[in-house]
């Protein structure tokens, strides 16, 4: 036995507990963005302090994910999940009652630490609770839950802010996680049979390195990528992550077992959410701004249009899971999803200030379906390649790449947009306003054309990244030739569902 389950397990309730938490954590990312204007008005905050309501959460979420996953393997996945959910609930409640912007930012950072514990251990709980076809269905449901939270967050937050104020948004997050905590007793505890002491030095170096790297990426667009402060953050962050790799190679109880990274199929599956960030999350973040600013849509109408992209994320994961259980290769579905990202982004270059919803419906549906095909299936396939004793570590590493890439890619994408707009409007300050959706000025038509030109170039760039990702990841997911030759009766791609020996 490589993992030791203890306590009474009720798999269905355990699944519901994890799903509810996985709805809430992404909701706290996308929903908080909608509340920012009201937060700024109520707490008399603007600029960087206000933006840190989002940045503080994303920074700690990404930085603590891997450490939380490794800790879950050592002290118990249920215990880590419960602790993370409690910290998340406390942070959300503190955010709901924060009297000023500084305390609100601190509360959001605390919530991000709790979110890391929930995400890192939640996937590990499912990986050790379910097996075979049941595991595929569980991870498909997990993908739908995360997609639901991400998609429903802005809409639900908008209703709450309008009816009860911005504090109700964070209060709801706390309530939902407390409900999930009520069912934790039905989750069996599991941990690695051998439990060495946590590599504290490695953990501190990793958190510091990734934190500085993400912080540099977040600060880059505002302070300038060539500014001494930003360059120092990026260089030191990369240096600490390099030191972390050296430390892990020498550690007897590493935070990250480097044999995981050396497994090319596992690493390829961990890169799927990174490519998804380029192909899907960037659209989810910046397309509403274009629709409101350049196309003149109301925020409500822009949110409704985005349903064309987010609805498939809710519906496709169960379909993809069912196809896998019927013998369709995870490799085929994942490669197809990345190709759809490439096609959807390239196709969306038909968009213009006067484009109708019918014109952009096709590319939005294509990108959304691509996301839905890979959500859940990719995570489930990745977990099938690791031993149960490393479930928390593997989930932590997977989600570190997911959340870390979102923070970095979104910041870089925004900076590229501003730079491209600036080449057309002649001013970086004006370009920043246009990229934020403010096209008020002497010639809104020229500003809209500049925004459109920049968006088209960015879409072609992301399409190229996704196309390259589809080729590289598809090739990396091919089974070893010796394994394929030894099992001619089994479809080669289907071997993703078996553990790596």
Automatic annotation (TrEMBL):
<dbReference type="InterPro" id="IPR011701">
    <property type="entry name" value="MFS"/>
</dbReference>
<keyword id="KW-0812">Transmembrane</keyword>
<keyword id="KW-0472">Membrane</keyword>
<dbReference type="InterPro" id="IPR036259">
    <property type="entry name" value="MFS_trans_sf"/>
</dbReference>
<keyword id="KW-1133">Transmembrane helix</keyword>
<feature type="transmembrane region" description="Helical">
    <location>
        <begin position="81"/>
        <end position="103"/>
    </location>
</feature>
<dbReference type="Pfam" id="PF07690">
    <property type="entry name" value="MFS_1"/>
</dbReference>
<feature type="transmembrane region" description="Helical">
    <location>
        <begin position="332"/>
        <end position="351"/>
    </location>
</feature>
<feature type="transmembrane region" description="Helical">
    <location>
        <begin position="266"/>
        <end position="287"/>
    </location>
</feature>
<feature type="transmembrane region" description="Helical">
    <location>
        <begin position="139"/>
        <end position="162"/>
    </location>
</feature>
<feature type="transmembrane region" description="Helical">
    <location>
        <begin position="457"/>
        <end position="478"/>
    </location>
</feature>
<feature type="transmembrane region" description="Helical">
    <location>
        <begin position="109"/>
        <end position="127"/>
    </location>
</feature>
<feature type="transmembrane region" description="Helical">
    <location>
        <begin position="168"/>
        <end position="188"/>
    </location>
</feature>
<feature type="domain" description="Major facilitator superfamily (MFS) profile">
    <location>
        <begin position="14"/>
        <end position="481"/>
    </location>
</feature>
<feature type="transmembrane region" description="Helical">
    <location>
        <begin position="225"/>
        <end position="246"/>
    </location>
</feature>
<feature type="transmembrane region" description="Helical">
    <location>
        <begin position="200"/>
        <end position="219"/>
    </location>
</feature>
<protein>
    <submittedName>
        <fullName>MFS transporter</fullName>
    </submittedName>
</protein>
<feature type="transmembrane region" description="Helical">
    <location>
        <begin position="357"/>
        <end position="382"/>
    </location>
</feature>
<feature type="transmembrane region" description="Helical">
    <location>
        <begin position="403"/>
        <end position="422"/>
    </location>
</feature>
<dbReference type="InterPro" id="IPR020846">
    <property type="entry name" value="MFS_dom"/>
</dbReference>
<feature type="transmembrane region" description="Helical">
    <location>
        <begin position="302"/>
        <end position="320"/>
    </location>
</feature>
<feature type="transmembrane region" description="Helical">
    <location>
        <begin position="51"/>
        <end position="69"/>
    </location>
</feature>
<keyword id="KW-0046">Antibiotic resistance</keyword>
């Amino acid at each position: 036995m490589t993992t030791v389950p203890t306590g009474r397990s009720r798999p269905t309730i355990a699944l519901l507990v994890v799903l509810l938490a996985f709805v809430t954590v992404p909701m706290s990312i996308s929903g908080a963005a909608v509340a920012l204007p009201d937060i700024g008005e109520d707490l008399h905050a603007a600029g960087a302090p206000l933006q840190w309501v989002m940045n503080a959460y994303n920074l700690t979420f990404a930085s603590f994910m891997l450490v939380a996953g490794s800790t879950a393997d050592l002290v118990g996945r249920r215990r880590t999940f419960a602790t993370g959910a409690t910290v998340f609930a406390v942070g959300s409640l503190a955010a709901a009652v924060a009297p000023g912007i500084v305390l609100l930012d601190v509360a959001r950072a605390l919530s991000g630490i709790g979110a890391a514990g929930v995400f890192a251990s939640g996937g590990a709980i499912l990986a050790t609770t379910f097996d075979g076809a049941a595991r595929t269905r569980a991870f498909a449901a997990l993908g739908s839950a995360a997609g639901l939270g991400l998609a429903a967050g802005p809409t639900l937050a908008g209703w709450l802010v309008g009816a009860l104020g911005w504090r109700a948004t964070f209060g709801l997050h706390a309530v939902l996680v407390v409900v999930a905590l009520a069912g934790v007793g039905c989750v069996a505890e599991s941990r690695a049979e051998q439990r060495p002491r946590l590599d504290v030095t490695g953990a501190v170096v990793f958190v510091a390195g990734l934190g500085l790297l993400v912080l540099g990426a977040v600060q880059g667009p505002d302070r300038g990528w060539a500014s001494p402060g930003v360059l120092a953050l990026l260089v030191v962050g990369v240096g600490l992550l390099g030191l972390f790799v050296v430390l892990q190679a020498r550690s007897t109880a590493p935070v990250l077992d480097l044999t995981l990274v050396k497994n090319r199929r596992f690493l390829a599956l961990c890169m799927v959410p990174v490519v998804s960030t380029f192909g899907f999350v960037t659209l989810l973040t910046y397309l509403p701004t274009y629709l409101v600013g350049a196309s003149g849509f109301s925020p409500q109408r822009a949110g409704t249009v985005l349903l064309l992209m987010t609805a498939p994320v809710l519906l496709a994961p169960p379909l993809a899971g069912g196809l896998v259980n019927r013998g369709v290769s995870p490799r085929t579905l994942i490669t197809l999803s990345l190709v759809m990202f490439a096609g959807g982004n390239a196709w969306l270059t038909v968009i213009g200030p006067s484009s109708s919803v019918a014109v952009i419906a096709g590319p939005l549906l294509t990108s959304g379906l691509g996301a839905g095909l890979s959500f859940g299936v990719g995570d489930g396939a990745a977990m099938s390649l690791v031993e149960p004793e490393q479930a928390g570590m593997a989930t932590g590493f997977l989600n570190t790449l997911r959340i870390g890439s979102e923070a970095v890619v979104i910041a870089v994408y925004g900076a590229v947009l501003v730079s491209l707009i600036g080449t057309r409007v002649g001013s970086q300050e004006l370009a920043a306003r246009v990229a934020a959706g403010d096209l008020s000025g002497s010639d809104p038509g020229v500003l809209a054309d500049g925004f459109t030109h920049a968006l088209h170039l960015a879409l072609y760039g992301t399409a190229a990244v996704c196309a390259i990702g589809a080729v590289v990841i598809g090739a990396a997911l091919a089974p070893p030739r010796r394994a394929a030759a030894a099992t001619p009766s089994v479809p080669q791609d289907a071997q993703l569902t078996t553990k790596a020996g």
